[in-house]
Design a protein that fits this description.
single chain, mainly alpha
Length: 193
C-alpha cells in the first residue's frame, strides 16, 4: 500500500486518502498521487469527478496562434505553485475530506457555474463560489484567487499602458467577489463573459 503523504497526516482517519487513491488514475498523464504536492492533489482531484470539455484558454490560444496575434500569460507555472503552496495543509485535508464525502459536488458546482456564466451573471457565479465548500476554508480562496489577482493586476498595469486594445482572458471567478481582478486594477475594464 502507498503511504499517505504529509497532507493526509492532517486528515482525521485516512479514509479520504484511501478513497482518493482508489479514484486516482494509475496510468496516463497524471503523476502518481503520492508524488504530488498537497495543493496539486487538491486542484486535480475535483476534475476527476467532473465531466469537462475543453475550456476557453486553449481555444483562445489556438485562435491567437492562427491569427498570428501576440499573446502573453499573466503568470508562470512557478508563480501558480508559489501561490498555491501557501494553502495550509489543514485546509487542503479538510477540502479533500469534503470532496470525498460528496463526490457529486464538483459536477453540480461546475454545471451551476456554467449556467451562470452563459447568462453573464457574475453575481450568481460569486454566490455559487461562496456556497462551494472549498472556498469556505481558510487560505484556499486567498491563494487561488486573491493573491493571484493582486499579482495579475500589477502585471496588467504595466501591460495595459499601450494604445492598442488588449483582451485579457481570465476565469470568471477572478472577475467577481471581494478582491476581484477589476477592483485590483483600479481602472475601467469591461467584463465580457
Amino acid at each position: 500500500m502507498i503511504r499517505p503523504n504529509a497532507l493526509f497526516v492532517k486528515s482525521s482517519d485516512g479514509v479520504a486518502w484511501r478513497q482518493l487513491q482508489a479514484l486516482w488514475p494509475t496510468d496516463g498523464l497524471l503523476a502518481p498521487l503520492e508524488t504530488l504536492r498537497p495543493w496539486a492533489a487538491l486542484i486535480v482531484a475535483p476534475t476527476l469527478l467532473q465531466q469537462v470539455v475543453e475550456g476557453v484558454e486553449p481555444r483562445m490560444l489556438r485562435s491567437a496562434l492562427a491569427q498570428a496575434k501576440p499573446y502573453r500569460f499573466l503568470e508562470s507555472a512557478r508563480d501558480v505553485a508559489v501561490a498555491l503552496e501557501s494553502i495550509p495543509l489543514e485546509a487542503i485535508a479538510a477540502a479533500l475530506d469534503m470532496l470525498m464525502a460528496d463526490r457529486g459536488e464538483p459536477q453540480r458546482t461546475l454545471e451551476r457555474m456554467h449556467a451562470a456564466w452563459l447568462e453573464g451573471d457574475l453575481h450568481a457565479i460569486q454566490q455559487i463560489a461562496v456556497e462551494a465548500p472549498m472556498f469556505n476554508l481558510a487560505g484556499i480562496r486567498q491563494a487561488i484567487l486573491d493573491v493571484r489577482n493582486r499579482a495579475w493586476a500589477a502585471r496588467l498595469s504595466e501591460l495595459l499602458d499601450v494604445r492598442e486594445r488588449t483582451l485579457v482572458v481570465v476565469g470568471a471567478l477572478h472577475l467577481c467577489g471581494p478582491g476581484n481582478l477589476p477592483d485590483c486594477l483600479a481602472r475601467p475594464v469591461q467584463a465580457v463573459l
